[in-house]
């Protein structure tokens, strides 16, 4: 029998704390709210935690200080959830020891996915099953054989192009920002400088799809927001 996964949610805003706890519980984990840095310390002294969701702007003891305490005690992963979206703050927090950084306002599905991702790395939780076949219009992806066909003709894709397309096909109604896309496919934190990398890969992928079927469009850009499958 697997042991329970305990997540400490450190956030002083009651509504946001409840929202984060709800995300944690819907993922099948146990959530414990804490509303200040000093309260969080009491819970950290009380038991071992599988993950800490941490706001930076906390009363009593700031999140940066609490992060330092957690890092001094062991390997418990920390995901920062903060309204402080400046790039330098993000970089410094990650270098200090945070495992991930989510900027408010956040997407509920993104928070859930990032929690799962961090816990998989630390606890070796199994990844969610991917269907053998993903399809959209006349585009079909075989996730076992790693092949993609358009109208029955096989498409030659690079590994990154395949991963981008697989992400979109597995989440047909989701709009992915460039940050979502980069962090999901590359598995690294998006700091802004990677935008051109995403543009190039997405452009190449769309050109290959357009060449395979000039009469249809599979991926659409929502300007200023991101990408999604085109219905």
TrEMBL record:
The record's annotation in Pfam families points to: Response_reg, Trans_reg_C
**Quick one: a GO biological-process term for this protein?**
regulation of DNA-templated transcription
Specify the Response regulatory domain's residue ranges.
6-119
Q: Domain OmpR/PhoB-type spans what residues?
A: 131-231
Keyword annotations for this protein, in alphabetical order, are: DNA-binding, Phosphoprotein, Transcription, Transcription regulation, Two-component regulatory system
| Xref: InterPro entries | CheY-like_superfamily, OmpR/PhoB-type_DNA-bd, Sig_transdc_resp-reg_receiver, WalR-like, WH-like_DNA-bd_sf
Q: Does the keyword Phosphoprotein apply?
A: yes
The UniProt entry, under SMART domains, shows: REC (SM00448), Trans_reg_C (SM00862)
Q: Where in the cell is it found?
A: Cytoplasm
Q: Which residues bind DNA?
A: 131-231
* GO cellular component terms attached to this protein's record: cytosol; protein-DNA complex
4-aspartylphosphate-modified residues are 55
Q: What is this protein called?
A: Response regulator transcription factor
According to its UniProt entry, this protein's organism is Cohnella lubricantis
